[in-house]
Amino acid sequence: MPKMKTKSGAKKRFRFTGTGKVKHGVVGKRHGMSKRGNRFLRQATGMTVVSESDTRIIKRNFFPYER
């Protein structure tokens, strides 16, 4: 049986922590920054952790070997 492939869109959007949690970039910083406040722009830097229920969905459907 051939190897299962990881979804290529998912590997660009998600990273894993050492304990198996899933991180993703903060949404809302692609364009239209002039509409957003300075406080939002400061807080929207870096990565955030995905919720537990979404983590199960992401691992099961997009990363077949991350279990």
TrEMBL record:
Which of UniProt's keywords are assigned here? Ribonucleoprotein, Ribosomal protein
GO MF: structural constituent of ribosome
Q: Does the keyword Plastid apply?
A: no
Gene Ontology cellular-component annotations? cytosolic large ribosomal subunit
- Which SUPFAM superfamilies does this entry report, sorted A to Z? L35p-like
Cross-referenced Pfam families: Ribosomal_L35p
Q: Which InterPro entries match?
A: Ribosomal_bL35, Ribosomal_bL35-like, Ribosomal_bL35_CS, Ribosomal_bL35_sf
The reply on keyword Ribonucleoprotein is yes
PANTHER family (alphabetical): 54S RIBOSOMAL PROTEIN BL35M, LARGE RIBOSOMAL SUBUNIT PROTEIN BL35M
Query: Family, per the entry?
Result: Belongs to the bacterial ribosomal protein bL35 family.
The record's listing under NCBIfam families reads: rpmI_bact
Q: What is the protein name stated in its UniProt record?
A: Large ribosomal subunit protein bL35
Protein species of origin: Enhydrobacter aerosaccus
Upper taxonomic lineage: Bacteria, Pseudomonadati, Pseudomonadota, Alphaproteobacteria, Hyphomicrobiales
